[in-house]
Structures
1.
Amino acid sequence: MDLLQGTLDVLILKTLSWEPMHGYAISRWIRQRTDDVLTVEDAALYQALHRLERKGLIESEWGLSENNRRAKYYQLTAAGRKQFRAEATEWRQYAEAVFKVLETASQ
Amino acid sequence: MRRIPGIRRAFRLPWSSTSRVNREVDDELRFHLDMKTKELVDGGVPLDEALRQARTQFGDIEYTRRYMNRTDRERMVSERRAEWSDEVRQDVRFSLRQLRRDPGFTIIALITLALGIGANTAIFSVVRGVLLRELPYAEPTSLLRIFSTVDGYQSSVSPADFNDWRNQTRSFSALAATDESTVNLTGSGPAERFKQARVSANLFQLLGVRPALGRAFTPGEDAEAAPRVVILSDGLWRARFGADRAIIGTQIVLDGFATEIVGVAPPEMRYPSPVDMWLTTRFGPRDFSDSKRGARWIDVVGRLAPGVSAARAQSDLATVARRLEQQDPRHNTGFGTRVVPLHEEMVGRVRTPLIILLAAVGLVMLIACANVASLLLGRTAAREAELAVRTALGAGRGRLVRQLLTESVCLAVIGGALGLGLAVWGTRLLLALAPGDIPRLYDVRVDGWVLAFTLAATVVAALVFGAIPVWQAQMGRLASTLREGNRGSRARPGTSRTRGMLVVSEITLALMLLAGAGLLIRSFAQLREVDPGFESAQVATFTVTLSPVKYAALDQQRAFATELLDRVRRIPGVDSTGVTFGLPLSGAGFVLSFDVTGRSAPPPNAEPSAQVRVASAGYFAAMGIPLKRGRSFTTSDRAGAPRVLLISEETARLFFPGEDPIGRHIQFGWTRDGDRLAGEIVGIVGDVRQRSLSSDRTPHAYVAYEQWPLDEITVVMRTRTDPARALRTAQGIVTSLDRDLPVYDAFTLESLVSRSLGQPRFYLLLLSVFAGLAVVLAAVGIYGVVAYTVQQRTREIGIRIALGASTDRVVAMVVWRGLALAVIGVALGTAGAFAVTRVLRSLLFGVSQHDPLTFFGVAALLGIVALLASWLPARRAARVDPLAAMRADG
């Protein structure tokens, strides 16, 4: 299933709200969490990461990965955390509203 | 996951690191593809297949790479910018905190700067308005004034010459004549006297001025028989006619003639001067005839034809002048022409004094900067420990320099803002103080140029006084300060020397200013000493001009004057009274050439001539002009009696050397209705100054009023009581005699004398204020340096006192430091002043530009100031407690 427009940013923010991660880990995490239902194209993911960094919602730092390789780690900034909270609430309300409508239609 | 702390700092991107951005993006992408490949291989996919799959699953790698590069570069730029402005904000906050922490320093520095910048801006606003602002007319640079010249002296122009120039030259696209005088407005409201200009019909077109309302004059309206028309000034239209737009086409009565208002001029139209209304010249063929060629009384303005230079116009006019000389040698021998750019003609007289003032105030600014630099140096020295610690903690040299410069700029900007406020107020003050005869003061205002000047002055000031401490604060030295464990005990030789040099230059400049002011003061005192030739105390005067309609006949004019004088004489408190035409010091009056009966006719243009005045019998007593020989006018010198004349001592000296003028008959070149002005000299009176106290004596001749009445009557009255009250009473008398006759130029003779000193007083006042400011600043500078020395040498002084040095010796040692600087400064300043007071020459009267008394006086004055400024901090040195001083210093 393809991602809805604008969903990717909030998913990245959510992923990074646990801990700093590099791009590959983020991609893997999203795949596992959605049981492979949502497919995130890697190209889109990396573009989104750099876009979010440019906006100041996340920041990056070079660190060492599990297998001792240099990797770029992303983490939420204060602004990013705030943005995530706002977007998450919005998504929840949106999804509930859509769900409610769909339930009504099936009766 | 392990992370290396501080790695982010290590990877801070320097300014131009596009390649680094690219490399990092590549690294990040390669890491992802490697991990993906590894995952696939771990899942059992063969390596080459895994490599391929990783790439295809990724999507558009190239596009993504470009996208990432671009986004990172943008981020880098904006981060750098944010960081920089952050640092600036930090520096500014830090600077303001530092300035607040040391209010004594900050207040002195700010006052110094505000005064310097404020005074400079105020003077510049005057220079800008008067000298630099373009005239508000179309293509002002092609406008010229044209004068006649007599033996090199500039004179007005005769209508006949003007007419010939207009018809016979090709260099001008237009020429216009103007003549300023006054006019009575009667009818609507009280009778009032207004300034008028009688001008050629083409004046408005020539200047490129469109009337704000109605129309300009049309060709032919300046002819003798044309209907009378007037254009009102904007000011008169608003003040007297309530800005009524329906005024166009209505009639007003001017000097008794019904005149139609055809237009209202825009406010910026002020040619030939800020008059109240413009009328037309109404020249007739008689005015242009050769017989009238000697009557030179109009002013001429011209616009150069396109592509013609002023020099060519000049030679074109010279050709006409030569032709006239051949044609009519009696009136034209020795006459030439001169063209002067209009702007130059208007402001040329005040250019030198204004530029001197600007230079003087610039010197004040330099002194102010030197002072602030010296204060800053003292502070930087005191803060060495702080700066050294910051260097040790890793603040780069550039960062520290920026910090020091930021402090200077903060000081300068605050000082500049305060200075601007001061300048707005100062400009207003200058305009209020300035004498009315400085031209174009109405064009002075604080405009964009003036603001730009203030900004420039502020920036230059910041750079000048900011650079010196930065130059001093060499980072290497600072580091060594820290190592040595600075206890503030050593006087830093570098800092002391620099501050000493700054103070010496302050004293040098202050002395130059003081010498200039001193010379002007001496010169002014000399001017006050000049005997104007009359006694101004307790004398008041006013003028009326009779309407040419109501008082057309000379008998009517005479009758009015006699009646008026009779009534004025009876005012209680009035001792003596008389009438005249053309008061001394007013510059008013006219020069007439004359022949002495019994002498052979002199060659053309070498005839004797004198300022001719018309005066009644009581005039000399009222003015206090002494009779030197013979007799004065008496009441028996009436209309029918033989004509009598008085001459001044200068006339006797110049034109009757070695002979007795009394009893000689002379005839003037002025004929009225066939009656030539002539008479017998019956007495000699004292000389009076005609134009100003500094002008040379001019020959005068007086005609009895009864025998030669005029329509312009100036009444002079000497009073025992308040002259102002007598003036008010006299005003009532005039109104009771003729309701339509306005009284004007009503003032006391003392104010006339005072007004004639207006410009010298104004320049003197300003230069004195600047010199005073310079002296105060220099004194503060000396005080600061000596106090700093005392502070730096506290320990040494303590030891000296402990070893038995007397208080006097200690004080003398410290005072000597300040005095030595003063001596060098005074010596340099005297030499400098000697070299530059030359520029003041045109402003000096009766005193040499190298007046020894002035030079000695200002040097002594500055020496005393320096002594005082050194002695105050030296007293503190004497009070040093040797034990405390040494203990505190370890």
2.
Amino acid sequence: MNNSKTFLNLNLLKQKKFNFNKPGKYIVFFHNLSGELIFNINAKGVDLDIYGLYTGKDQDKFIVKTQQRHVAPSARSNLLIKGVFDDTSSFHYEGLIKIEKKAQQSHAYQKNQNIILADGVFIRSEPFLEILANEVFCTHGSTTGKLNEDQIFFLQSRGLKKTDARKILLKGFLDEIYHKLMDEKIQIIKPKYD
Amino acid sequence: MASNVAPVLDFEYKFGFSMPEKNVFKSKKGISEEIVSMISDMKQEPAWMKEFRLKSYRIFREKKMPEWGADLSKIDFENIFYFIRSTETQASSWEDLPSEIKDTYDKIGVPEAEKNFLAGVSAQYESEVVYESVNKELEKQGVIFCDMDTGLREHPEIVKKYFGTLIPPHDNKFAALNSAVWSGGSFVYVPKGVKVTLPLQAYFRINAERFGQFERTLIIAEEGSYVHYIEGCTAPIYTTQSLHSAVVEIFVKKGARVRYTTVQNWSKNIYNLVTKRAKAEEDAVMEWVDCNLGSGVTMKYPSVYLTGRGARGEVLSIAFAGKDQHQDAGAKMLHLAPNTSSRIVSKSISKDGGRTSYRGLIVVHPGAKNSSVYVSCDALILDEKSRSDTYPYMKIKESDTEIQHEATVEKLGEEKLFYLTSRGISKADAEGLLVNGFIEPITKEIPLEYSVELNRLINLEMIGSVG
């Protein structure tokens, strides 16, 4: 395997379509980005992690489409999009994993997790799979909901105020992506969220 | 048991026989206002129903074909018979049925099913229900179980109150078509507090070439009642395209529970485009068990409108697509009230170039507090020619809710196959075993002990052809 590692911060790159033509490890990150993001996996041995983070408040409106298109066989892609939405923000996510006929031995994953903090929030989550090869393993998952009441209750029982308990849980939820980037020894400027 | 060289999972169609046509009446091909009025006149329907049909016909003409889902471009509405009456009057016992019809049913085993003390068998052969037997027990309880035409004739006040209110003609093009030319189907009314212990069963079958079957089913379960309705379909193979477009409306009142089981095994030239919807009121439970094995193209998304506090909806679905088949099936759950919950479990298998698509919709309206949704879709792709898609749509406008969706697509596990073959089981049998295990969570929900046909269909299609 190729040991090269490439980090792509889409907030800095201003590019939305990517072709991965060489094997190696690729890590993609973006924060509060709208638009259509296309990842074409054209080479064997591509190992791609995609991390998206959304923090919506006021009247923020995000419309995001992602496409993990496996053209070449024996590659891996793994997408994780996490979002926290407050006030009357809205988030429309459409994610597609497409495995073309020749892309046997593909592993493709897609996960979208959203937390709704206020009643005015509107979430649309549409994780699609189109699989044309058979020797593959593909999964997607999507969860949307409020903060876990039991976890808040536990923290309260340890003497924390409810607002602090919520803050800790939100931080833990969002920090997952930073920890994953840190594991890869990648530093980014952490956007503030309160 | 077949030898090891037998093709794996060969879902060959076993009911592809067709009887010579001997119909009393057959309308002209194609659809027009005259045909629609004629159907209504022949059935001597009340004026409001004729009006409803004609209005629906106009809506059908205006509505566009759906631009998503399966390929429907080959449907030619002008090349279909919209009404055939196969016997003049309905037979009340098995012996009274014409011999061809009896023969067809014998082959798929209706009489055996009867022997198993079915609550009632209502079999649709072409347009109208020709054979029907209702258990006396049911009558005593006040349960009405008859074909839709009889329902309209004998219980017009109930039918008028509910008919077309949950799926209005302008819902979609095929609902409009059905509303215009519907014929047959079942009418079920379960009074307050009555629990129907044995499943009600209806058997549908298409026999005339180029004949669209447009059955219409209406089920009303009053407060605290329970009923399980089973519908199974097999049809002979023909070379020209045929259309099946049913509408099923179910009203589940406070605290009632309805289960609707379908085993769909139309032959591959059939377009199966069905609109099924249920409304679940306070603390009601609606369950759809939906097995799609046959047809060339199926588009079917049983839905539950959870309108009452604490209502629960469930869809368990199996789709199998072989050569030249596209199963575009799924489910819809609309959460409109607090404390509502829903669960969708879908299992699909594609093989020999078949395509299965799961298409689902989850809507959580503002105010549906403390609601929860669980969706799980698993797909197996058995060879490289086949395809599987997952298209879930989730729209969430309430913060106090929990939505989970997960899907996996994979092939049969190599390790499991290797393990089974190492124990001396042939590869074909091992694959069959694994596929059966894959769909078992849903097949175990089908009460096979009550229904010989269902048993036969599942076994012939799933096990018999493998072993």
